[in-house]
Amino acid sequence: MAFEFGTIDPAGDLPDPGFDVAGFDVFGPLAGLSPEALIDSARYSASMNAVNTCRMLMAASLLHEHREEEYLLRRSQLRSGQAESVEDLLRMTADAMSGSGPYEEFGPNGFEQAVAEFGAAMNMTAAQARDMIRTGDAMRYRLPLTGTTLACARIDLARFQIAMKRTDFVDDAAMPAVDAALAEAILARDPMSITRLTTMVDQIVHTHAPEAVKRRNDHAARDRGLSIRPDRHQPGQSRIAGHVPDIDGAALNARLTAMAAGVHKGDGRTMSQRRADALLALAHGHQDLDCQCEDCAPEPVAQELDTPEPAVQDFDIPESAIQELDAPEPAVQDLDDREVDDVVTESGVPVAEAADETVTEASESPEECTCTCARCRAPRPTFHIVANETTLQGRDNDPGMLDGYGLIEADVMRALFADATHTYVTTGVRTEPAEADAAAAAAASRYVPSRKLQALVRAGELCCTFPGCNQPVWTVDLDHTHPFDHRNPDSGGKTAQRNLKPLCRFHHRIKTFGAWRDSQDEYLATWFEAPTGHVYLGNPFTGRDLFASLKTQPPDHPARRRLDDERATRTDTHRQRQDEWDRNNPPPF
Description:
Elements: H1 28-31, H2 35-78, H3 86-98, H4 110-122, H5 126-142, H6 144-151, H7 157-166, H8 175-188, H9 194-208, H10 210-222, E1 225-230, E2 238-243, H11 246-261, H12 271-283, E3 343-345, E4 350-355, E5 382-386, H13 389-392, E6 400-402, E7 406-408, H14 410-418, E8 424-425, H15 433-436, H16 438-444, H17 451-459, E9 477-480, E10 500-503, H18 505-513, E11 517-520, E12 526-529, E13 535-537, H19 543-546, H20 558-584
Parallel strand pairs: 3-8
Antiparallel strand pairs: 1-2, 3-4, 4-5, 5-6, 6-7, 9-10, 11-12, 12-13
Organism: Gordonia westfalica
InterPro entries: DUF222, HNH_nuc
Protein name: DUF222 domain-containing protein
């Protein structure tokens, strides 16, 4: 199957002769539009950009085919590759053994010529031109149905390239099934963020081509590397780039975050600065990050400028006079979703905080430390994994979800869960908390969700639920869709699964203090209405699509119960009549 366009003039519309292009104001027509019309114009422009990108990729692929055909034709005319005598055969054999290419005299091949020509026309580097030609070829031959979604503006170039690269190790036999499933999933859902699309692509590959996942992981392990070079744009800085397997990357990221969070609140550095300093501390062999608050930072030594002698004298202090003081504990702000336990769902979806097994207590003593110093109270590096309980028991090999990174293989996940701390939460409850018991009703009237409820809500999502956001779900807030009434909790929104959703701090503030409106339906789909009136679905693909046991049914309602009873009655009546007819008409008929 090949992806082709209809008959459209590639040149497009041109201005009429004599039209003053220089005096035409391109941005003038947009200046008088309302915000609603501006959003519509932006979305239309994005869709047209996707269509034009699709045409550009096809043009790049067709150009490559033309140049490759010309190259092969010219080469065949000048040299057929057949030896006319024994001497020619010996000479050709000697050239091959010496490493000289038999076709070097014909210059660049068709692909190299197309790269140069397309790159010059599009003002691209050679690497970018190669990428566009390969993307066009994949759109036409490997992912033609997914390429159709690009032509229909359901995805953009960045998302199509994600699908292309994450299916690169799928063999040709399984590729049609993967392409069809991927196109169907894209067309069946609203546009989604990069994180959700990436997870959906990985799930489809795990389902239809599991061997490709193993080949991809083997390639990721071999392709690891790290480079440190001066930054071309910022003098005095260096840029660090590298590739490591996702599990190792998650462990390093958690380690840096834990070290950065281990300092006192009075430390004036930002989180990014502390994480950078933590990486440098690891490079110098330190296991913790020195705090730079006023209480911990050493005072500068006073020195007289007129004399090189220091103004501080050394005194001998007996050891009994030295008293070790505990550093003050950092203040913890109790937000409505910041504390999360390691959890495993009772109905089959475990969620765990897997601790980095290489990290020990921040103490230099080999014995277990029991003191309360700031170093020993630093948080342990943790990351979160969601998985089916049946996978942990070895009954299936479904992948797990590593928060912030994507799907991981079952074997790797089992190894991480072996040392993880986990508990259980309950899923699939059909009744509202007020109808369950008094304890659940009391919990629904508290502002801060319980740890198990927080974990249940986060396990059902992949990231922030605001449209287009990719913030990992275990690093964001939990927001009440219907606002919680602090003065009268019984009259406001309940602290329940159907009234909670993950939102990053930025979008949490936008939703709370802006003109946005949000809602959740019975199936936990989250809808956002912009100030312009446009409505967006925030979570087209969620953790509930990955783990079936996390899916919940709408709460019981008398109207639906009546229809269910009528359906059951009709079924029983039909079965009884069929059984009676069978008794009255025994074989042979």
